[in-house]
Amino acid sequence: MRAKHNKKRNTAFVYEALIKEATIAILKKEQDKHKEAIRIIREHFGPDSLLKRDLECYRSLYENQDLDRETSEKILKEATTSKRLLDPNSLFTQQTKMINDVNKNLSPSVFNNFVPNYKVLATISKMFNTSSPKEKVILENKIVEDMSNEVETAGDLQPIDNLVYTTFVNKFNKKYCDDLLEEQKYLLTHYITSFVDNSLELKIFLNEEIGRLKVKLYEAKKVDEIRGDDAMLAKTDKIADRLSEYINEPVSEKVILTVLKTQQLVKEIYEDGSSS
Hints:
The chain is mainly alpha-helical. It has 13 helices and no strands.
């Protein structure tokens, strides 16, 4: 019998959907919703929680990409073993508490958020939950293939259920526009999940991104519209200097917002420069 996928019982999907909800709330300046989404993530995915351990079983499979087949198979074996060690009854209880928390304090619509790697998460969930040896082997091979290839982009995905996937996309696009830059998405995701590793990944990403933006700003001074305007040149240098100061400052919302605005500014400078 084929394993049926229940996205609300897919710990990784719910986690990614909550991250998406928190990101959208930041961008829409819905502070109460943002705080509630973060509260749910922290409460249910704390360092010692059962859901965090379950999430790690998923993450070891969908975050490890472009590996050789032997390494992928070893990771799959360890993830499957770790998953079996989790008490299914306790896990079900914790999932139920989280689902109720989301429904009551955020919105059931959270479960309709578009998650780009939905197909992969569904495949992993089915592999973890199937009782059919044949289906398990087929799904394991698919997961190993995914891990051995480069990360798929949202445009390359062929969803398990086209109707479900299309519904996700439409609802997401209605909730938030598609204009967010990839680098802004990465920054916001790292910021929202920074409590997991004491902001380590966020700080690493910020240092790299600030360095990239500074280079782009200095190169932007060669663009005709800026090169011929003393005020624009001064403002460009001021922004670059401000970014340099942020490297040594504690991460704060002010820092994040400034970097987000600079990312958009750099994008616009180069788009205008290339079109002129």
